[in-house]
Design brief:
With 301 residues, the chain is α/β, with parallel strands linked by helices. The protein has one domain: Alpha-Beta Barrel (TIM Barrel). An 8-stranded parallel sheet has the order 1-8-7-6-5-4-3-2, sandwiched between helices. Strand 5, helix 7 and strand 6 form a beta-alpha-beta unit. Helix 2 packs antiparallel against helix 11 and helix 7 packs across helix 8. The longest helix has 17 residues. It is globular. The structure holds 3-hydroxy-3-methylglutaryl-coenzyme A and magnesium ion (MG). 3-hydroxy-3-methylglutaryl-coenzyme A binds next to helix 1, helix 4, helix 5 and strand 5. The site of 3-hydroxy-3-methylglutaryl-coenzyme A (HMG) has 26 residues, from helix 1, helix 4, helix 5 and strand 5.
Length: 301
């Protein structure tokens, strides 16, 4: 990897769809995942093995993962909150998992019905099993820039949770602006604290929701700080039922356009990505509302 190589971690099939009320067939989700791989994405978060009562839209996680045609060189991580989730994910053929907690107690309680400390206790055996099987793993730190229940979140809390997840053996932590409140100064503050605590840029991903239109500015600030992994959702869908006020994730097509203009290599073809973006917008029955989705790439006629 060169210093200008960027990893795009696609969360559309999971974060993008988990909060959608429209029923989406397993086949339509599988087609979306295939189109994302066609576009060159190499990490596609496929689904969640959470309580089907908590996230009804992803209740088909088992069938979806089992039916997925895996492409060589593509990783398909899934969310797993506990031992029951690991059992289901294992039965469906998972080999990459994400555990998820937060930097605020109130959100952690609302989202997974645990304290932050209880979440670490639940993840410890899950991550140990995953490591013994040679699986890849990631830990999410949600509400790192603000909590819908508690308000401001200090960077010391983010650093503390990130370090605990890394100590449990995750390969990387994804720092989430769950409700989309951060601006570039917040990115410099939080990422600065993480790097200052000795966490390497390669152990960090940033996960922006674009609720207030700041996600692209935040990516730009993070690139300047040496961060090279960004989560994004093709079609700009996304949100969490336990994060009131959250809008869609940063759109993958908007991220790809920025990275192209910045001269960063990422392996994703924008035209092919637009096919996936139009597919999911069509499935959801609404027009594609992302910036690049509407304007297209910029080329001379
Ligand atoms: P709970 O109710 O406290 O759990 O939920 P429980 O252990 O008491 O179990 C209750 C019932 O759920 C039982 O069934 C369990 O078997 C079942 P019953 O006996 O009542 O029929 N159950 C499960 N079923 C299937 N799969 C499982 C599972 N676990 C228990 N894994 C729990 C606790 C964690 C399960 C629940 O709160 C939950 O599933 N929460 C998930 C919420 C979620 O998925 N949120 C969205 C993802 S996080 C996010 O979007 C943020 C992120 O994008 C980053 C960012 O933006 O910041 C990652
Ligand atoms: Mg999210």
């Amino acid at each position: 990897m060169t210093d200008r190589d960027v990893r795009i971690y696609e969360v559309g099939p999971r974060d993008g769809l988990q909060n959608e009320a429209t029923p989406i067939s397993t086949d339509a989700k599988l087609r979306f995942i295939d189109l994302l791989a066609d576009a060159g994405l190499r990490e596609i978060e496929a689904t969640s093995f959470v309580s089907p009562r908590a996230i009804p839209q992803l209740a088909d996680a088992g069938e979806l993962l089992a039916q997925l045609t895996r492409r060589p060189g593509v990783r398909y991580p899934v969310l797993v909150p506990n031992a029951r989730g690991l059992e289901r994910a294992t039965a469906a053929g998972a080999d990459a998992i994400c555990v998820f907690t937060a930097a605020s107690e109130a959100f952690t309680r609302a989202n997974i019905n645990m304290t932050i400390a209880e979440s670490m206790s639940a993840f410890r055996p899950v991550l140990q099993d995953a490591r013994e099987r040679g699986w890849w793993s990631r830990g999410y730190v949600s509400t790192a820039f603000g909590c819908p229940y508690q308000g401001e979140v200090g960077e010391a809390a983010v650093v503390g949770v990130a370090r605990e997840l890394l100590a449990l053996g995750v390969d990387e932590v994804s720092i989430g602006d769950t409700i989309g409140v951060a601006g570039p100064a917040d990115v410099r503050r939080v990422v600065g604290a993480l790097l200052g605590a000795g966490i390497a840029p390669a152990q960090l991903a940033l996960h922006f929701h674009d609720t207030r239109g700041t996600a692209i500015a935040n990516v730009s600030a993070a690139l300047d700080l040496g961060i090279r992994t960004f989560d994004a959702s093709t079609g700009g869908t996304g949100g969490c039922p336990y994060a009131p006020g959250a809008a869609g994730n940063l759109a993958t097509e908007d991220l790809v356009y920025l990275l192209d203009r910045e001269g960063c290599a990422h392996g994703v073809d924008l035209d092919a990505l637009m096919v996936a973006a139009h597919h999911i917008a069509g499935v959801l029955g609404r027009p594609l509302s992302t910036k690049v989705g509407q304007a297209g790439a910029w080329r001379l006629p």
